[in-house]
Amino acid sequence: MKTNFLKLSLLALFISTASCSSDDDKNEVVPVVTTKASNIDASTTEFTKFSFSENKVVTTDNWDVAFSKTTILVNGGTKKADAEPTRTGSGAVSIVSGTFSSVTLFPEASTFVQDGTTAYAIPTGSGNGWYSYNATTHIISPIAGKVFVVKTHDGKYAKFEVLSYYKDAPATPSETSVSGYYTFNFAYQANSTTTF
User: Which of 4, 51, 89, 91 supports an S-S bond with 74, CB 3.0-4.6 Å?
Assistant: First the structure.
């Protein structure tokens, strides 16, 4: 009788341990890691679509942001021009002033904007969105302290900051630097929390 009780107790302990570890796996918090994307080709009028969750350029509808020249789109809202990819997601963006590392909380929901038929969520033009243009040197430079918090196409969140608009991200771009190649830092939040 004691042997059967001991066997049943060990079996119950094993089942309890197995189910706990299974629950732990389901509730595991995935750490948020800052990643650098380099040389994302936006040198043509065709938009290059990028997925934060996949950390790569994609050709599917599972994109979060898209790049062409100095224009950045988000996968949410409506098209402004026919050449743009169709918005199939619920994406939006909030522009935050601060350093990349200081943006740790998601902005208020009311600050998120989608692309529209009259304006993009990330404004275009020198000094309006992510860059400034120097008419003397003809260099396009990211505006310091601009962090873009993106609601992704599937309702998750990411933040990114543009580091360079030139191939191989030269420290000091010149007129001979090859333009239209984005390098940016990003952090993707796969958890159901409101922090990075």
Answer: 91
